[in-house]
# Entry
Amino acid sequence: AQTVTQSQPEMSVQEAETVTLSCTYDTSENNYYLFWYKQPPSRQMILVIRQEAYKQQNATENRFSVNFQKAAKSFSLKISDSQLGDTAMYFCAFMTPDTGNQFYFGTGTSLTVIP
Amino acid sequence: DTEVTQTPKHLVMGMTNKKSLKCEQHMGHRAMYWYKQKAKKPPELMFVYSYEKLSINESVPSRFSPECPNSSLLNLHLHALQPEDSALYLCASSHYRGNEQFFGPGTRLTVL
# Structure
């Protein structure tokens, strides 16, 4: 069975600072993908970043980057130069193609950027 | 077009009503999903369609009935719902055996 754990229910960061959201997962699969999704108060889920398990290089998308530690089954999200628009729920998600593209979501981290 | 659209945005219904939620995508995705989401919780998977066939049904009550008329459309028919079914209903799509899911904006459902 696949599980995803986000141990930080709520976090806050000052505008322009850096914050890291943690995520761990458990799986026996070798072929899988990891994602971070953002859901602002308007409730639209938006993909922030994705990581293929077979890639050693950490994914980066502008101010968003991940620290993927495969052996430790850890997948943290770093947000640099935080902006007010980053205020949202952040969900870590795991997917393996061998289970019909089913996503497994973590419980989410509510991030507030303080002006 | 990289958008998943959902209608209506809001729906209020009584426990004896029958209503339908609609979802549409034109990205050529062959997998489509229905999720239920309560406030400050992660989405809960309800149904998965792959190539217009129901492939995953997560033990959802029969008062929810999905339908996939073609590869671009996904419906969720609602009948005799309970107040605890009030939630945000999200539709998503992805390439079959692909990776990321694209989510629609959701339908906010209130059952009175």
